[in-house]
Specification:
Elements lengths: L9 H7 L2 E5 L5 E6 H6 L4 E9 L5 E7 L8 E4 L6 H13 L5 E7 L8 E9 L12 E7 L1 H10 L6 H13 L11
Parallel strand pairs: 3-7
Antiparallel strand pairs: 1-2, 3-5, 4-8, 6-7
Amino acid sequence: MSCVCLYISASRMNKQMEIIDVVGTDNAVIGQTDVYTAHIESILHRVVGVLLFTKDSRMVVQTGNKFGKYDMAAGGHVGIGEDPHDAAPRELKEELGVVTKLKKVVAFIPKETRHSHFWHVFEGTAPKNWIFKRTKEVWAITIMTIEEIAEGMNKNPEAWTFGFQNVMREYLKTNFNYPTQRIVI
């Protein structure tokens, strides 16, 4: 008799079993499920993404994280009964230790999605005196221009999380502060 054993860390199991709201395409809550089931069964649910900028308009990018890929400053699932406006600063503080004012810039469902995420994207500026310190979730960052990010995503998309690619595509379409005609992701 053979056995296939699956080992999952307790913290990862807890994240997968976290209960979240299920939403319709209008973003209205229609039920609840756990993260694992939502992903496996392609059930639409809310996530937040935070784009954190420096004072000189460059972007903070995670380089050391559980995905082993470049990722946006912070992001994660919106908890049961939680509003995305509360989830975004919570995720930013958990992942980077940053507390700053955030502005919602776009909400969307990607045309290509792997986990049925309804994205709520926020942007903010890192505090002037902020110095990155390793957290449980992020152990390294880099600072990049939007052009450098777009070039990296175009040259080597496998090095970037799928969520970050979706967020950047939508962000560049809806944000008129950047010359999007020069940036294709």
